[in-house]
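Hi there. Long-time user, first ticket. I'm pasting a complex I've been working with (about 1448 residues overall). I'd like to know whether the download I got is complete or cut off, because the file seemed smaller than I expected. Thanks.
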Amino acid sequence: MLGGMQYVLIAILCSFVGLGTAAYYAFWVLKQDPGSALMQKISKHIQEGALAFLGREYRVIAVVLVLVAIAMGLFLSSSGGWVMSIAYLVGAVFSGSAGFIGLTIATRANSRTTHAATKSMPKALEVAFRGGAVMGLTVAGLGLLGVSLCFVILLFASGLVGGADGLTIIPGATLTIFGLSIPAATIFSDVIPGFGLGASTIALFARVGGGIYTKAADVGADLVGKVEAGIPEDDPRNPAVIADNVGDNVGDVAGMGADLYESYVGAIVAPLALGSLYLGFKGALLPLLIAAVGMVCSAIATLFVRGRENGHPGRALSTGTYGAAILTLIACYFLVMMLLPAGTEFISGIGATLVTHTVINPVGFFVAIFIGLAAGMAIGQASEIYTSDAYKAVKRIAEAGKTGPATVILSGLATGMQSTAASIVFLAIAMGVSYFAGDWAMPAGGGIFAVGLSAIGMLATTGIVVAVDAYGPIADNAGGISEMSHQGPEVRAITDSLDSVGNTTAAIAKGFAIASAAVTALAYFQLYAEKVGLLKTGINILDNNVIIGLFIGGMFPFLFSSMAINAVGRAAQAMIEEVRRQFREIVGLREGREGVEGEYGKCVDIATSAALKEMVLPATLTVALPILMGLWSARALGGFLAGSLVVGFLLAIFMANAGGAWDNAKKYVEGGELGGKGSDTHHATVVGDTVGDPFKDTAGPSMNILIKVMSVIAVVFAPLFTRL
Amino acid sequence: MLGGMQYVLIAILCSFVGLGTAAYYAFWVLKQDPGSALMQKISKHIQEGALAFLGREYRVIAVVLVLVAIAMGLFLSSSGGWVMSIAYLVGAVFSGSAGFIGLTIATRANSRTTHAATKSMPKALEVAFRGGAVMGLTVAGLGLLGVSLCFVILLFASGLVGGADGLTIIPGATLTIFGLSIPAATIFSDVIPGFGLGASTIALFARVGGGIYTKAADVGADLVGKVEAGIPEDDPRNPAVIADNVGDNVGDVAGMGADLYESYVGAIVAPLALGSLYLGFKGALLPLLIAAVGMVCSAIATLFVRGRENGHPGRALSTGTYGAAILTLIACYFLVMMLLPAGTEFISGIGATLVTHTVINPVGFFVAIFIGLAAGMAIGQASEIYTSDAYKAVKRIAEAGKTGPATVILSGLATGMQSTAASIVFLAIAMGVSYFAGDWAMPAGGGIFAVGLSAIGMLATTGIVVAVDAYGPIADNAGGISEMSHQGPEVRAITDSLDSVGNTTAAIAKGFAIASAAVTALAYFQLYAEKVGLLKTGINILDNNVIIGLFIGGMFPFLFSSMAINAVGRAAQAMIEEVRRQFREIVGLREGREGVEGEYGKCVDIATSAALKEMVLPATLTVALPILMGLWSARALGGFLAGSLVVGFLLAIFMANAGGAWDNAKKYVEGGELGGKGSDTHHATVVGDTVGDPFKDTAGPSMNILIKVMSVIAVVFAPLFTRL
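Hi, the file is complete. Here it is re-exported in full:
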């Protein structure tokens, strides 16, 4: 048997496998031909815009980080305090770095993909996918590395784990750091969640701010360009066109990356903390090792993604995703059987009375991992069924266009609402089966731990899921660049086919991101209950404080969504006014006179300012509300978290799928059905698409962050919430 | 002191005051001049259509009633059984009768209001309001009478209550009926809820079926009449015009009446059952007497409603509503102080250990009644603020019309979402304050009882609230009849001013109906927990079954809404095809040739069939889901009810206010703002209005019924749910 230190070193090694592969792909992408001078110029504009946004955003975040870190150090001094502050900053810096690296490569892969498309589809697919894989593998690699480092530094440096097998927390051991003594057993539940909060802080800004940015730019560019000035999409005469392309990267690459980084870290951190309580050190180790195994399998599976001349590019991507899943499952089976063989005994290290737990059927834990992974894929597929024009929901919305925009809207809203049923059923099955399997694996305690395992099971292959998702905006940008650099129809055909696959993968990734947010928040929720002592007494819905919390928690996702939708409206308005000003003041811009260029940077700037300004109120409420509820009553906060989790999940699915369905109904008509482009039916579906934009790209994805951030805040600040 | 029998007789007497006033108004309305021959003919068409719908609906309901009654008798034989079946049938028949009477008078008051409008505004207001008051007072009167009769028959006929004060349940007493012995103390919690389920069954059909009917007729008539044939609204050439006017009555009179009848009965029944457990017979009596007092005050307050020449008709209606509220509160103060003076002691009659409760501060119970009534009014007012064009939300939606329909939709959706916050806060305050006040009034047990009292406080003035609401469709119909019978502009001006007030009162009544549904469902929810024994153990959100229930319960309102929205679409389609057929086959109809008339009855028929057919699946699910959940696990059903309550309430507010705001944004533009009728902005707001129709009149109001029906089913079938 290996000792504890060796296992964690293996996890670190696995993270290096991921990061190394990412580095290889990054250099590979940079070595590709960046295309013609015009392509390079456009790509450079996008790069500069994206980095300008990121720079402004990171400066704001830095202030927030420092303030929160100080608050944690001061107010939580009895339970981690400054040590947690450090974990918090490391978590945030790692997430921010992943976003920076991913965005840097993605915005360089775009023109290279366009250029590759002038050669062949497989080549273009390879460039776009490898560009996305840098983001995916960096997100997972840095997440895993960060949590592993917390392990090493906090525990082994102080020799708190030992015993005959090197895998036992020494009873009563304490870690002394900054003159503060922390009981070893509570490090997992008190200190490491700080790392998760760091990830959440970045995600909040990246997803909400990025979501407002991308749709303000998109809607603004469309309304003023297509509608007012009558110039087509992606036309370089439109000064907002670069901001629009920047938005794709900021929202879909950096935003989605930070979102899944947060889920990934949360899905390791929360089960790890719960596992340490029920299964000692091995329980903390298992989630980490599942992630490590998934990391390596994801890196291997990126090699499976190869386009074939005349093959469907979507097939290549699926091969990668499913390949990673199968490999991970096989490896996890052996991992569980080796680490927790039947008969393994544990003594719960926390609580007034010590309890002995015995693992009876370890395969039950494997089942939980399996069902989590399967549920993630199933929920993703359900999104696909409601949002792809290969199925009848989207066709029905397009048909509704025959009687005008109102019926398109109603049909889309009904589709989004209906789609919640399938996702909820899959989620419920995953929770039910994993709890049951965990309870069977280890009576008393195994159930809750297993629900956490299903979360990390779902997220183990984050590396390749994010890779496939980040591929989408690269392909989309490549299409935009091929348009702006006046490529021929064969090239456009290739970039279009890559882009259309990107829409499908985006829908699946969205479903997956929502499901992973729900299971992560659920795991944090249980950890919160454990920390405030409610896991024993329960959180009783009949209790007046709890039901009030449930109502207010349920309301907040609605309130937040309304703020996000209005924010897009206001920010788009600012953008429209700037573009109008440029058309008015820059002579020859609208006519496309040679050598005249819009002030692209100004538009990027305005969208950036507006996005950052608009997120102040919703972000503040997201942080403040759970703390206020908790200070009032820890039970009320329990109800609040449950309410926001259920409603946030439902609204996320509803808005993502309604928005996706409208988008594809429009594209279906544009593909020549029901009268095609320019028909009344088309106009009606365009209305649906415009309504869907802030739904699916701003308010919807914000829900993922909302439910995770609020639950991790509850975990971190739990020591303050003593009034049950 | 009066004995128990006398108190109940007083309640019965009060119900006769209400019913007597209703009868007086009914005869008064019928004595008014029914107007010209043409007015009478149109009114007759509407009457016949409404009664045809009601007849068809009641025949379907009769089958359901018999089946459910038999099921109750067979499966619940150990706890009420056939006795409960009888209470169930009585509850349903009383509710059905109220609907029949109210609808009969309302459809006769319409042409009389039109005729009165040829004389003066105050006269027309009086006719319309008194027509509505028949519905309001009948609903409340029959509700109160029914519950009182259950009291008398079940208890006093068997002499189960006695003691020195005549107000004590004799320990161990049993009621023998149909050869079945029922413990006296459980009659309140086991048998009387059957009466509530009867009310709920009618409400389910009236609200959901009526909601589908009214919007199918409205949307169908609009699309084929205004859009295709180019004839104005309320034009007699449109064969769907009568069905449209029937829809107003079926949806807003019968549907809203059945909805509030259900809330009213539930708000008496649930606190009554809970009260009997904590406060013995007096605890059962208090909710009944609050309702009785509110009944008389409502009847008196109807006399305050008098229009003044040049006065604002809305003012007269408000005087009535607020007058009733103030009178009721004053009376309730004395009632509480007299019935439950400080020092009153009770022994809980149920449970393994007997506990003595002592009333310490009876005024706390009064505070709960007060806060319930205030919350109902506040939530109604909040609806008004988000849906009236006197406030900025509606103006902002209209402004958004300048950039097209998409921004109108987004702005309306955001407004609806935002409006949930205010309502939730008022509801939370009411729950928090009433619980706190109740606990202060009587430690241990007083809190939960007081939350129930706040429900009946909110609903005590149901008589006048329904009267004011039912006034709306009468005024609306009167406007339609004055159009169809070609009245002059002065008459139209009067009916328009009455109609516009009706829109405001409808918005307030909608908010009130939602709030009352929530508190009623909450009271049933607690009763359910008590009956399955979960009030003692609690319903723990951390429990896997409970959280799965919470998720599925939260999902169902979304699923139900999607079914309701799609149902309207399909039913409207059937209507459109029928109208097209008539235009095609009936020569001279479209041109309005003298003597040629559409087959109005056919249209009514088609809308009726479609509505009844479309409600089969959602209604079946509403009944079946809670039973299936309960059979799986009583705890899961607890989570399910909480989830559906929170999400159902949120969606109800969201959809009602978004729909109302769109409606008034359109009317605001039609009033001449932002370009007025026919402008692009107007077209954009029309899209919003069309989307809002099934939101505010079908799916939204269905949520009220959904949450009440599911919780009362849980209460009634609780004895089957033994697996905790």
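A couple of notes from our side: Chain B has a mean pLDDT of 88. The longest helix of chain B spans residues 241-302.
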